[in-house]
Design a protein that fits this description.
Blueprint lengths: L2 E5 L9 E2 L2 E6 L6 E6 L5 E2 L2 E3 L6 H13 L1 E12 L4 E5 L4 E3 L2 E11 L7 E7 L11 H11 L6 E2 L1
Parallel strand pairs: 2-9, 3-10, 7-12
Antiparallel strand pairs: 1-8, 3-6, 4-5, 4-11, 7-10, 8-9
């Protein structure tokens, strides 16, 4: 299913749903960030997706990272809660979702990079090279928040 992200766009459609999503800022021993090139919007992103019934947020992010990248992770912390009513995601089935994502930090503990139906490329990217990728501002905010030394999680 394809999607279109609207961010601070006065012509954006009105949200008609909200769903709990999770994402993870995963860094390897060299400080590189695990990124996917998404198939649904053609942008680079940290891995993540929707939480399923019966999961905790931490279980959901471990599952999503493995599904999208092939990398097994352990959750190490909370980056923050990201929900901006001015960021809506329109899907081709008519759903228009308000962004709501709980972002974690996680360490890789195994697995091998691989793509999935949601990722056409998976790579470790140095923070200094992020500007060479097309990354949505909401994802950039999660990455920046996760790389910044904070005593409190980010929240809106």
């Amino acid at each position: 299913m394809s999607r279109t992200d609207f961010f601070h766009d006065p012509n954006a459609p009105k949200a008609n749903s909200i769903k709990v999503a999770v994402s993870a800022l995963v860094q390897d021993g060299q400080g590189r960030i695990l990124m996917i090139h998404r198939t649904d919007n053609d942008k680079y992103s940290i891995p993540g997706g929707g939480m399923e019934v019966g999961e905790t947020p931490a279980q959901a992010v471990v599952r999503e990272v493995e599904e999208e990248t092939g990398i097994h992770v352990t959750v190490t912390g909370l980056v923050g809660v990201f929900s901006n009513p001015d960021h809506v995601i329109a899907y081709d089935d008519g759903e228009v979702r308000q962004e709501f994502s709980i972002c974690f930090t996680a360490d890789p503990i195994g697995g091998e990079l691989r793509t999935s139906t949601e990722s056409k490329a998976v790579e470790w990217i140095a923070p200094d090279d992020l500007d060479t990728r097309d990354i949505h501002p909401s994802i950039k905010l999660r990455i920046e928040s996760g790389l910044t030394s904070r005593t409190e999680p980010y929240y809106t």
